[in-house]
Design goal:
By secondary structure, the protein is α+β, with helices and mostly antiparallel strands. The chain has one domain: Thiol Ester Dehydrase, Chain A, CATH 3.10.129.10. The chain has 2 helices and 6 strands, in the order βαβββββα. Strands 1, 2, 3, 4, 5 and 6 form a 6-stranded antiparallel sheet that branches. Strand 3 and strand 4 form a beta hairpin. The radius of gyration is 16 Å and the shape is globular.
């Protein structure tokens, strides 16, 4: 799993001290960006090809509060022909308590021509190596 530390900002907090749910989705996006940068060695600003989100399902388990120290865990669960499923959790850094979990389907995308493409073999190989699927 890729682990991304998150800094909760003052502007992320609502009137009762919770992180707003829309901002929690941004934290998950930071986790995805970190995963792609580390595993696929892709720059955040994709120019020719990358991934677009087709579906996201998030289950909120516990509130995230202003003083929580949190991290996003990101892993790829499976790769299809043109898409992959990413699983993420937001956890307390010290206790490991899960605050939420999310599953997203990302589609490989040709940014120049605006159409879906097969997941490039090089990406598939890097993800397989990182996730250690070849060792199972």
């Amino acid at each position: 799993m890729n682990i991304t530390p998150i800094q909760i900002r003052f502007s992320d907090i609502d009137i009762i001290g919770h992180v707003n749910n829309a901002l929690l989705q941004q934290y998950l996006d930071l986790g995805k960006s970190s995963y792609f940068k580390e595993v696929l060695e892709l720059p955040i600003m994709w120019r020719e090809r990358g991934f677009v989100v087709a579906n996201t399902t998030t289950t909120y388990i516990k509130e995230v509060l202003v003083d929580d120290k949190i991290v996003v865990y990101t892993t790829v669960k499976k790769i299809g022909t043109k898409s992959m499923t990413i699983y993420q959790e937001v956890r307390c850094e010290k206790s490991g308590d899960v605050k939420l979990h999310s599953s997203s389907i990302l589609v490989a995308f040709d940014i120049v021509n605006h159409l879906s493409i097969p997941v490039p073999n090089s990406w598939r190989q890097m993800i397989t190596k990182h996730e250690r699927w070849d060792e199972r």
